[in-house]
Amino acid sequence: MNDTLLKFFCAHVFFLQIYENLRADPINNYLELITGKIDYLISLVVIHHYLCLSNKINDMKAAVLTEYNKVEWLDVEKPLCKPGEVLIEVAYGCICGSDQHIHKGEFHPRTKTPMIMGHEFGGLVVEVGEGVEGWAVGDKVAPDPIIWCGKCPACLKGHYPACTTLKLIGIDSDGGFTQFISLPPSMLYKVPADIPDEHVALIEVLAIGCHAKNRSNVKKGDTVVIWGSGKVGLCILEAVRTVTDNTVFMVDILEPRLAIGPKYYENVIAIDASKENPVERIKDETGGKGVDIAFEAVGHAHEIEGLVNPVRGCIQSVCGGGTVCVLGLGNEPAPIVFKELIWKEAKIVSSRVSRGEFAEAIEHLKHGRFKPEALISQKLHGSQTQRGFEILDENPAENIKILLDFRSEYPD
Fold first, then answer.
1. H-assigned helices in 219-276
2. Are 176 and 93 in contact, with CB atoms under 8 Å apart?
3. 8 A C-beta contact, residue 233 and residue 256
4. For residue 136, which of 80, 204, 90, 87 has the smallest C-alpha distance?
């Protein structure tokens, strides 16, 4: 018997029992005189009850990208908890830079509308599927959205971020900007109950910062420069501060963003690239040596007359034997002079998504080493997701992460 018929049958039996009880009551013997009408009325009540019950059980709300640049708060079918999966009630999600590009249609044809975005989110397990062990209702979880093939050369080396067919939920399949989602436990990390729900939604992007820190092998006492003081750049700052308390330079052209690092962490020097040459300032501050590690987290860079592009700026900023770590996903060419790199025998590495650093990020949150409030600009209800994208487009300087609340009652 399928799920729909089972619900109808249960509702029908329930109301028939009530009917029989009424008929058995002598005070209500008059009902026998109008049995036909009562049967008809009960059938209507059963159908009404079933429809109401079915809507409550099968429907949920989701922020659906119905067409590019337009998100609507719609009723969608609630997923079943499949065997081998757990059903998660989403608490918070947050809008990523990739989500902004998806919203504008810049990931097309990889993404197609209608779709549910969201690969940065967290929630609670509300149902455990058949065959799942080690998980329980009430577990707080952070999903790792990465789906790798496990067969390509990179995967066989354990280098999953470089999977040739890498996919992410919320991009290549429906994601977490919804009230419920069913996922296999292999994609989930347990989170201590005392970590706030808002912070759980930030674990994915904080793990990206940890991965970049690990890829560049930041060590205690290292000096660092981070080109780009946005979502990813600030997460790199959070990550490197778990290792080194030496000077960190933050480079950007948006003053409100540059103010965040020094507000939350000591020994952070903000450099406005629209007002001074970052490379010259870094050399001055380091006695001409340069920094040990330079991160490029700008992506789509604005050309500034008289200044080199951020990647080349990173190369010029590192000391002999230093490391440049590139994360920005800009489409524009970034010309560099390899002689500048070779003379220093420096190296360039890249960093993409994460490789299990969720566990590391959770530990840092647990022990208070991260300052997640530095990333949170606003909190909106899930029904206001479209407005969240508009705010980020209208005022990028003063908005880093907008959190979306999918669990509370939505406003009228």
1. 231-240, 255-258, 260-264
2. yes
3. no
4. 87
**Measured between alpha carbons, how far is 37 from 15 in angstroms, rounded to an integer?**
15
Residues contacting 304, CB < 8 A, separation 6+:
253, 273, 274
Contact call for residues 252 and 301 (beta carbons, < 8 A): no
Question: Which pair of structure tokens corresponds to residue 404?
Answer: 């979306």
Contact 383, 411 (CB under 8 A): yes
- Please give the chain's pLDDT, 412 residues, in tens: 444 444 444 444 454 455 455 445 544 544 443 445 455 445 444 444 444 444 445 699 999 999 999 999 999 999 999 999 999 999 999 999 999 999 999 999 999 999 999 999 999 999 999 999 999 999 999 999 999 999 999 999 999 999 999 999 999 999 999 999 999 999 999 999 999 999 999 999 999 999 999 999 999 999 999 999 999 999 999 999 999 999 999 999 999 999 999 999 999 999 999 999 999 999 999 999 999 999 999 988 888 988 999 999 999 999 999 999 999 988 888 999 999 999 999 999 999 999 999 999 999 999 999 999 999 999 999 999 999 999 999 999 999 999 999 997 765 4
What does DSSP say about strands 86-94 and 121-128: parallel, antiparallel, or unpaired?
antiparallel
Contacts of 364 (CB under 8 A, 6+ apart): 206, 210, 238, 239, 242, 370
Q: Please give the single-letter amino acid code of residue 161.
A: P
**What is the C-alpha R_g of the chain?**
27
Q: How many whole angstroms separate alpha carbon 99 and alpha carbon 120?
A: 10
- 89 three-class SS: strand
Helices first, then strands: H and E counts in the chain: 14, 18
Calpha distance 152→184 (Å, rounded): 22
What's the whole-model pTM score?
0.86
Distance separating alpha carbons of residues 227 and 237, to the nearest angstrom: 11
Consecutive H or E run containing 296: strand 291-296
